[in-house]
């Protein structure tokens, strides 16, 4: 999640940086030709674009996800039905009895996957460094502002000087301001400034003795200009613009052009404010206003607070403000300039986004779809299996097409490879919950998972006992407002079940998307060369745990026998349809892998839960009856335990 957000921010930062560089280069020309407010509005537009690090297509996808989420928010999670080894309810859609794709791939792919979540990539490290930098920038700026505000409220005095208050009231009336502004005397202020968002505070240099600027007091006219300048800032909401630029700098702290943008935006904000103050003034009053600016330059003290509008800006900025105020040439309307920059900015974002999509497309070929949007058709099968039967692999990404309300919707999907099967999931829309189970990011009630059974009879019996009914493309049930679907894929005697569930109200959404995803399911069968290279060393065994501890486990191996198996005997339980048979002399001991994982069932038949090694040992010790386990062994070590549901 952090990595994806960082990449989006980086993409936006790169595209907007080109526009910032162009603006910085042309600023002298713009300042002479156009009013400062247009440059100020351009900087605000660029800041807003930087604050929303997503392109148009991302925005559309987000709106669709939010729409689906809103439709399904009222739905309650459905009770979990019980499938073979305790996994949650899942859905399936393939044609009953139709073998799915058998993929021959190298042994390295058929080996049990290492835990992807635990891998720390360089990109992830960079992303977390970026996130830490954002946090520090925000904390420093907001903390500095809050500290200064507390000092003002603690040490300052609400101003009651009648002359100042009369001028304040007069200026508010001239500006048609309804918002109340509190004036606080604070002797430590370097210059008059404005702080506060919900309750603005105008701070003036005023000591406890009651002398305004007691060293060299301002004249009544100078004070009038100072108050008017700060109230114009307040009326225009410039404090919120300051907050916007601060947030953008925190988000893009690694980009020096963004910091230059903030600095130039602060200057254009002051120029624009000056233009508002002097609007309609005769030349002599403009000159008096510049004299007030010069006076503040000589009398100013310490630098103003963060996230405030200070009247004092420095010599270079003051010179630029003088030139802008005294310039007699009338400046042009810059509306078309603003519109052009906006179009160019959005266009740059689209170009960068298309470049990224193009790279993804080159990394993995897309495949055509049929009328129902189903992928993995004959063309893909030939790509996988090869015309000459040679070893091949699938594409990392494909395009899935979903028909929703008569409209085709396309999504990029990435390959998810498990030890025994593969399928494709839309990029960024699913997260892995546990082994063989995924959950939709936009809706926690939408899930997809995979189970396998020794034969079709056992699978259908267990599904029927859990309320599933046959359907043309698999089995289904409805329960507590949720739709459950399952597809059965029978390959070499084994049956793989692909389950999925979704709220019944989302039939035109998830109900159209999940069947297409389930149709990408493929079973992985290693070739002979792969087996010779060590793939045969990976297996799953069944049995009871005789001893556990000291880094090893002893397993009393058992066989799960059904009525169709040649080992079935008359004395076995025919009504149950299965029998657990002890394998004599098959007690084996394995060492535990360092990253061994442990799964138990809630109440020995409910939801699958992952626990740590210590809790697993306690679970074995506290249970007073033998529990049946599925144990995964890789390269001579046990890599996982999963409690087996016993019907």
Q: How is this structure best summarized?
A:
The chain folds into three domains: 74-120 and 366-527, Jelly Rolls (Sandwich); 128-331, no CATH class; 534-643, no CATH class. It is 42% helix and 24% strand.
Percent of residues in beta strands: 15-25%
Lateral arrangement of strands in the main beta sheet: 10-11-12-16-15-14-13
The number of helical segments is: 17
Level of helix content? Answer: 40-55%
The Cα radius of gyration reads 35 Å
Terminal CA distance reads 39 Å
Low-confidence stretches: 72-118, 356-393, 527-536
Domain count = 3
Global morphology: elongated
The major β-sheet equals: 7 strands, antiparallel
The CATH architecture of the largest domain can be named as: Sandwich
Q: What name does CATH use for the topology of the largest domain? A: Jelly Rolls
CATH class of the largest domain: Mainly Beta
Tally of DSSP β-strands: 23
Average pLDDT works out at 76
Q: Structural class, judged by helices and strands?
A: alpha+beta
SSE blueprint and pairings:
Layout: H1 2-33, H2 36-51, H3 56-72, E1 101-103, H4 107-110, H5 122-155, E2 157-158, H6 162-175, E3 182-185, E4 193-195, E5 201-204, H7 220-236, H8 238-251, H9 256-278, H10 283-299, E6 309-310, H11 315-326, H12 335-363, H13 378-385, E7 397-404, E8 407-417, E9 421-426, E10 430-434, E11 437-440, E12 447-453, H14 456-465, E13 469-471, E14 474-479, E15 482-491, E16 494-503, H15 510-518, E17 522-524, H16 528-532, E18 538-549, E19 552-562, E20 578-601, E21 608-611, H17 613-622, E22 629-634, E23 637-643
Helix pairs in contact: 1-2, 1-5, 1-9, 1-12, 2-8, 2-9, 2-12, 5-8, 6-7, 7-9, 7-10, 8-9, 9-11, 10-11
């Amino acid at each position: 999640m952090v990595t994806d957000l960082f990449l989006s921010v980086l993409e936006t930062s790169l595209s907007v940086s080109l526009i910032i560089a162009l603006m910085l280069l042309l600023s002298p020309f713009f300042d002479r030709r156009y009013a400062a407010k247009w440059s100020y509005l351009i900087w605000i537009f660029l800041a807003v674009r930087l604050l929303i690090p997503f392109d148009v297509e991302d925005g559309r996808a987000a709106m669709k996800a939010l729409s689906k989420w809103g439709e399904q928010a009222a739905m309650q999670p459905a009770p979990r039905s019980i499938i073979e080894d305790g996994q949650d309810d899942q859905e399936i859609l393939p044609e009953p009895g139709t073998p799915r794709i058998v993929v021959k791939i190298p042994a390295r792919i058929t080996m049990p996957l290492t835990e992807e979540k635990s891998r720390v990539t360089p990109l992830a490290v960079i992303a977390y460094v970026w996130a830490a930098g954002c946090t520090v920038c925000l904390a420093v700026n907001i903390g500095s502002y809050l500290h200064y505000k507390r000092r003002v409220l603690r040490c300052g005095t609400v101003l009651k000087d009648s002359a100042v208050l009369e001028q304040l009231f007069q200026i508010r009336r001239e500006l048609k301001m309804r918002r109340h502004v509190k004036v606080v005397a604070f002797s430590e202020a370097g210059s008059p400034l404005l702080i506060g968002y919900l309750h603005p505070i105008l701070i003036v240099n005023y000591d406890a003795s009651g002398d305004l600027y007691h060293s060299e007091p301002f004249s009544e006219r100078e004070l009038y200009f100072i108050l008017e300048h700060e109230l114009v800032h307040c009326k225009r909401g410039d404090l919120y613009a300051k907050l916007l630029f601060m947030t953008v700098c925190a988000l893009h702290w690694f980009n020096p052009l963004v910091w230059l943008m903030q600095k130039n935006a602060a200057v254009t904000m002051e120029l624009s404010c000056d233009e508002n103050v002097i609007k309609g003034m005769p030349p002599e009053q403009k000159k008096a206003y510049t004299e007030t600016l010069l006076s503040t330059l000589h009398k100013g003290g310490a630098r103003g607070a963060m996230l405030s509008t200070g009247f004092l800006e420095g010599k270079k900025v003051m010179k630029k403000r003088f030139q802008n105020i005294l310039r007699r040439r009338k400046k042009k309307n810059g509306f078309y300039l603003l519109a052009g920059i906006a179009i160019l900015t959005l266009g740059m974002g689209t170009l960068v986004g298309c470049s990224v999509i193009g790279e993804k497309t080159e990394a993995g070929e897309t495949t055509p779809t049929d009328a129902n949007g189903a992928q993995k058709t004959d063309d893909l099968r030939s790509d996988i299996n090869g015309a000459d039967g040679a070893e091949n692999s699938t594409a990392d990404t494909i395009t899935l097409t979903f028909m929703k309300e008569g409209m085709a919707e396309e999504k990029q999907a990435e390959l998810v490879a498990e030890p025994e099967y593969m399928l494709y999931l839309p990029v960024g829309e699913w997260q892995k919950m546990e082994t063989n189970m995924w959950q939709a990011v936009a809706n926690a009630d939408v899930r997809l998972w995979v189970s396998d059974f020794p034969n079709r009879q056992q699978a259908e019996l267990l599904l029927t006992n859990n309320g599933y009914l046959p359907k043309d493309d698999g089995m289904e049930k409805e329960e507590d407002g949720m739709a459950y679907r399952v597809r059965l894929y029978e390959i070499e005697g084994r049956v793989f079940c692909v389950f999925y569930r979704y709220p019944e109200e989302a039939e035109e959404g998830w109900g159209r998307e999940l069947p297409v995803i389930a149709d990408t399911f493929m079973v992985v069968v290693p070739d002979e060369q792969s087996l010779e290279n060590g793939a045969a060393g990976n297996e799953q065994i069944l049995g009871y745990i005789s001893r556990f501890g000291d880094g090893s486990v002893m397993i009393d191996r058992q066989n799960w026998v059904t009525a169709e198996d040649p080992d079935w005997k008359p004395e076995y339980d025919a009504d149950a349809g299965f029998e657990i048979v002890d394998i004599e002399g098959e007690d084996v001991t394995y060492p535990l892998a360092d990253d061994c994982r442990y799964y138990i069932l809630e109440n020995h038949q409910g939801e699958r839960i992952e626990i740590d090694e210590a809790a697993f040992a306690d679970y074995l010790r506290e249970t007073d009856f033998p529990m049946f386990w599925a144990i995964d062994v890789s390269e001579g070590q046990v890599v996982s335990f999963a409690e087996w549901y016993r019907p």
